[in-house]
Amino acid sequence: MAEILVDDKTILITGATGGIGNATALELATLGARVVVTGRDRDRGEAAVAALRERGGNRNVDLLLADLSTQAGVRALAAQFAEHHERLDVLINNAGLAGPERRLTADGIEADLAVNALAPFLLTRLLLPRLRASPSARIVNVAGGEPGQIHLDNLQAERSFRGLETYSHTKTIQMALSYELAQRLRDSSFTVNVCYPGRASTAMTQSVTPHMLPVGMREAWPAFERMARPDQGRSAAEAARSSLYLATSPELQGVTGQYVDSRCQRADWPTAVLDPNLRRQLWAAAEQLTHITDQQTASDTATQTARRNADGKQ
Prior knowledge:
Layout: E1 10-13, H1 19-30, E2 34-39, H2 42-56, E3 61-65, H3 71-84, E4 90-93, H4 111-126, H5 128-132, E5 138-142, H6 164-184, E6 191-195, H7 203-206, H8 221-227, H9 234-239, H10 241-248, E7 259-260, H11 276-290, H12 294-313
Parallel strand pairs: 1-2, 1-4, 2-3, 4-5, 5-6, 6-7
Helix pairs in contact: 1-2, 3-4, 4-6, 6-11
């Protein structure tokens, strides 16, 4: 897989202290990028950064602490990044959550939806000023589960919570929001694409319990359990290939609104994602739940530009 030069690029990867995100960060650090990873736990995060620096032979790897299940955490992450970096060349929304039961966050939002769909939606919107500062920024959103239908009347699992089916539902919502963002930003200088990483042994898959599987799949639990066993990161490194492809491939320069599979091949979007009316309703719901609008994003951009200009005059 050919890569573009990334040694002058700043790349932010959420949920990269372990699993697929960590494998993605390692490869990008090895290629010489300035890599910023996010995590919730300081000790684990600092250990991950130390390992990435050593294994990648790159000192330009940094940690930002953030709880992406809360909107305060997402906003704090965006503010921290903007404080230390003038531009963002690649944003990889990798963090994910598959909860064992329905749980509400501090914002009163179902946790799977908050982490898998709303956090990348909000973070991307907040970081648009830094993305626009790059001549050809890329937004890479990592999908997961089994994409299917989207049920507007069950966005927060109000009617039913079904383990991995709910996880898949929120990831399909993320895909729809990503496709809508690509359409809205089609005339901009940066791209929005989605990848499916495939199955891997990660902390998330190792936390799955039999009752989280769909009823018809529970007989296959022994096979799932074997797949989730620790393998020294081999399957995570394999699953990181599609993220790396979207982040670095020259074939994707200027290409937006694409969905690629675990083999880095272009795949068909789920039917629900292609419904423009459904996407518009999801976009409106996401804006309402995250309390952000296009007007606020524009205001944030103007404010940050004014601050940079004022700093330059001092």
